[in-house]
């Protein structure tokens, strides 16, 4: 298979396993490119991409922008927090104004779940979901799986635990879809108040004891506590959360095997993981950042090839 089965990247749940493998193989190629002295390829010289962020983002936005520029695309950056959206302009108006500038692809982050799906039905451009509310964040899940594949050789059959605020996390949901699709075993771990009621219906195990979860897993993906989405208190204090669900070097060293530590960032150092864990040789957090550019290059390149 040499092309994606989808025209947009709206969520992992719309992809099949061969889509994921194609994205990974394409990312392998681009990873070589970004490690060369000349890091650019002319692949998308005639494509214009608009990055529209209705929510603040530093890492994802920079990663997409870098990926687009490495592919030689023309890039428009649009931050909705400083725009007419504040004056009441609708999502469709905003995007249609941008599309009238002949944009081929829109990378969008939006606080409302399903915003990308809504948009894909109303505009001609190819849509990449860079995170919609607490729903999905597909490129993050792809780069996480890609990083596991790079470190452990394969995703299939691996035991992966996602620790933390599962309830508010689009990263968790996309990761569960991606890992299950590739044949990994998945558990979630966190305070009961931060685990969605429906979670087991997705085919994942639930473990509320962090030590047991770490004894079971090959990979621990540590999510941050999303203070900006916690409208009520889901646990007594941050200190208590850290004591029960934070990973420190002492805990890591007490396991009878070496597990891989991941984190989608930004890290709350000293909360979900301590600095000595984040910076340890078991951590692949910086690999995730590097792989993010290669994965986003692959996604953009493969979607651009479907633009007629």
UniProtKB/TrEMBL annotation:
PROSITE patterns: CARBAMOYLTRANSFERASE. The keyword Membrane does not apply. The keyword Transferase applies. Carbamoyl phosphate binds at residues 59-60, 109, 137, 140, 265-266. L-aspartate binds at residues 87, 170, 224. InterPro entries: Asp/Orn_carbamoyltranf_P-bd (IPR006132), Asp/Orn_carbamoylTrfase (IPR006130), Asp/Orn_carbamoylTrfase_sf (IPR036901), Asp_carbamoyltransf (IPR002082), Asp_carbamoyltransf_Asp/Orn-bd (IPR006131). Heterododecamer (2C3:3R2) of six catalytic PyrB chains organized as two trimers (C3), and six regulatory PyrI chains organized as three dimers (R2). Belongs to the aspartate/ornithine carbamoyltransferase superfamily. ATCase family. Catalyzes the condensation of carbamoyl phosphate and aspartate to form carbamoyl aspartate and inorganic phosphate, the committed step in the de novo pyrimidine nucleotide biosynthesis pathway. This is Aspartate carbamoyltransferase. It comes from Maribacter confluentis. The gene is pyrB.
């Amino acid at each position: 298979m040499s092309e994606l089965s989808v025209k947009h990247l709206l969520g992992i749940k719309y992809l099949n396993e061969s889509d994921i493998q194609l994205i990974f193989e394409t990312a392998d190629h681009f990873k070589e490119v970004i490690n060369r002295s000349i890091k650019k390829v002319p692949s998308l010289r005639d494509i214009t991409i608009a990055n529209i962020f209705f929510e603040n983002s530093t890492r994802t936005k920079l990663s997409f922008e870098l990926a687009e520029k490495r592919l030689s695309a023309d890039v428009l950056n649009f931050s909705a927090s400083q725009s007419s959206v504040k004056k009441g302009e609708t999502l469709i108006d905003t995007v249609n104004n941008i599309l009238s500038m002949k944009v081929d692809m829109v990378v969008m982050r939006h606080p409302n779940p399903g915003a990308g799906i809504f948009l894909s039905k109303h505009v001609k451009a190819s849509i990449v979901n860079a995170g919609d509310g607490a729903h999905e964040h597909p490129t993050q899940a792809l780069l996480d799986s890609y990083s596991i594949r790079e470190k452990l050789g394969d995703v299939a059959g691996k035991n992966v635990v996602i620790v933390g605020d599962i309830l508010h996390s689009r990263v968790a949901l996309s990761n569960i879809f991606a890992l299950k699709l590739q044949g990994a075993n998945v558990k979630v771990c966190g305070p009961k108040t931060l685990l969605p009621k429906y979670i087991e219906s997705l085919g994942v195990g639930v473990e509320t004891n962090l030590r047991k979860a770490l004894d079971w897993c090959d990979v621990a993906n540590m999510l941050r506590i999303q203070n900006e989405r916690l409208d009520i208190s889901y646990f007594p204090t941050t200190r208590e959360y850290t004591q029960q669900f934070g990973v420190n070097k002492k805990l890591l060293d007490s396991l009878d095997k070496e597990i891989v530590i991941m984190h989608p960032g930004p890290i709350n150092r000293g909360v979900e993981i301590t600095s000595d864990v984040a910076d340890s040789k078991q951590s692949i957090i910086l690999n995730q950042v590097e792989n993010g550019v290669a994965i986003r290059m692959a996604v953009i390149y493969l979607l651009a090839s479907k633009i007629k």
